[in-house]
Amino acid sequence: MMDVPDPSDFPTPDLRALDASLRCTICGELYDGPVMLTGCGHCFCSVCVRQHIQRESDCPSCRMKTSEVAFRPNSVLEEVVGAWKEARKHVLDMARVEQTLAARSHASVALQTIPESSNPPSASVTPSSARSLKRKRRNVDYVSDSESSEVVLVDGSPTPKKRPGKVSKVSRANRGSEQPSSDPEEIPLDPNSNEIIDCPMCGKRVPLRSINPHIDSGCKDVGRPPSKISLSPTKARNNNAKTQWSSLFGAGGGSSGGPDSKGKGKGKDRSSPSEIPTERLANASYDVLKDKQIKQLLAEQNLPTTGDRKAWIRRHKHYLIIHNATLDKAMKNRSTFAELRQELKHWEDEKAKKPASAGVSDVVEYTKANDGEFKRLVQEARRNTKKPPPKDASPGISGQSEKTPSPVAPDIPVKSEDMET
Amino acid sequence: MDARLRRVNKEISDCKNDKTSNITIDLIGDSPFHLKGSFPGPSGTPYEGGHFEVDIAIPESYPFQPVKMKFITKVYHPNVSSASGAICLDILKDAWSPVLTLKSTLISLQSLLCSPEPNDPQDAEVAKHYTTSKKSFEDTARYWTQVYAGAGKGKGSAAGGAVGATEAPKNEVAIAGLEEVHVGKFEKLGFERGKVIDVLRRLNYRGSNVTNIHDDRIVQELLK
């Protein structure tokens, strides 16, 4: 079995509880686009609960009646999870190091690890303590890092904005407006920067430097396609080293806009705001639609129309789920249309694989395991049908005799067989 | 890796890490979607001391569809088929919720053994036995636990289904939940022992029912 990160990674129960509480109870992953069910207040990944609501109309946790209209994006939780995703690995490393230290020294030391290690997650909320946390992390797990990186990251030179500032930025970007520049700590408005703002007239997202031509053109010209604001946390971690270095070197000019936008440029290439879904799709009543109309629905979303009607409906249904689910995320975490289509394809591929492998292997295994029983039942059935005057057939047996041997049904014949042996 | 596999992985490791619940989940073959769970019989019940194994099949749309579970170990219980091991439990059917896990479902099975529900039976004969005479039912369930689930008498661990049938000779009268006196009475009339047991079991010749069922009725059945 492969290794999947879960709360049991942590050595102490308090950290395990923390990690577990930030996980969706349906998929067991850290919340991805969490939504809260108004009414009962339970929280799930948007994708998970939307899949559930297709089958049942109640809360998975408490069974209170609910529906899609009761879902509210839980942006605060999304921030918290985003921050925890960043901090998790470091906290884990620290907790393990402390665990080994504690194991080496005496039991009294073990007591201290608990308050120590439970500190970081809460600390990651404020930039200043995040920075001190950073210092700790450096000491613990980046021992082999070059000195320079350590200095740059802790001493508050203009550049460290990238990493310690990131946490605070996550929170601000979420907290409503997509106007990163409105924050005092953020980059000041620089007419030449690549900053993206909402057009005050039409609400479209436009690079700051082309805002004037955009308005002048009557909000038709979207301007140079803006790049995405920031990386998703996971992507960010992958690119961690790269972005850190690029921020180090890019910061040379002192223009705070420079390194930032460079870091962004390394992320997904989101060439235009229209590539990110902004509007929810409504459920369709497929049963009343003609084939042509369903195909049209797919075409509207640029989805393939391969397969039969069943496949179209399944495809469209799942696309609705992931499309609407991505809208429950903060702007910066949303998938583009292309990514959604990719995800859909991946999902279909997985589905296509399964029935063949899982289904058949189960059946084969089942037949093998119950082969003897099947044969015996068949024989028994034949014996009974051959002798019309059922000399020894009890009602139970004769009742079952015509049936093909089903795995569950024939309680009575099997049992009586057992008795007789 | 797809979400279902990730979740199953987590659930298996969760069970491995949990030493207090005494519940285990193991792979049967190569597939992570066909598993074997086991748990100890709840104490204070006829199932105490037994070790019960459950076949677990994880459907394609898990966790949005319930897992398929059935007992591998033979269990004498109104809500478990005594022949196939099929289980009648709401959370395995329409009351399933995706927040339930393999572990929580196995715990539910364990508690199902504590509290039989004869009004919604899976095995009608066992349920009849239960409602007629709880005492006699418990004796039989205890005997089954000893024979098939390896309680007490050291019959070895869980002997499931067909394997159990070929093991050391068992008292088939006790397995059927009948009394030797009754079986002996009709055997003396010249009927085959197995047949007598079969008929008496079907007629639920137990407890207070013994006085309700006339001997002629039984002989009639035996002559059929």
TrEMBL record, chain A:
Catalytic reaction equation(s): S-ubiquitinyl-[E2 ubiquitin-conjugating enzyme]-L-cysteine + [acceptor protein]-L-lysine = [E2 ubiquitin-conjugating enzyme]-L-cysteine + N(6)-ubiquitinyl-[acceptor protein]-L-lysine
One Gene Ontology molecular-function label: ubiquitin protein ligase activity
Pathway: Protein modification; protein ubiquitination
Keyword hit for Transmembrane: no
Chain intervals with Basic and acidic residues compositional bias: 261-272, 371-383
GO cellular component terms listed in the entry, alphabetical order: nucleus; Rad6-Rad18 complex
SUPFAM superfamilies, alphabetized: RING/U-box
SMART domains in the cross-refs: RING, SAP, ZnF_Rad18
Region feature (Disordered): 112-192, 214-284, 371-421
UniProt subcellular location: Nucleus
InterPro entries in UniProt: Rad18, Rad18_fungi, Rad18_UBZ4, SAP_dom, Znf_RING, Znf_RING/FYVE/PHD, Znf_RING_CS
Membership in a protein family: Belongs to the RAD18 family.
Entry protein name: Postreplication repair E3 ubiquitin-protein ligase RAD18
Species assigned in the record: Coniophora puteana (strain RWD-64-598)
Taxonomic lineage of the native organism: Eukaryota, Fungi, Dikarya, Basidiomycota, Agaricomycotina
TrEMBL record, chain B:
SUPFAM superfamilies: UBA-like, UBC-like
Residues of the active site: 88
EC number, as in UniProt: 2.3.2.23
GO molecular function: ATP binding; ubiquitin conjugating enzyme activity
Domain UBC core: 3-150
Keyword Acyltransferase (UniProt): no
Pfam families the UniProt entry points to: UBA_3, UQ_con
CDD domains (alphabetical): UBA_II_E2_UBC1, UBCc_UBE2K
Keywords: ATP-binding, Nucleotide-binding, Transferase, Ubl conjugation pathway
Family (UniProt): Belongs to the ubiquitin-conjugating enzyme family.
Name listed for the protein in its UniProt record: Ubiquitin-conjugating enzyme E2 1
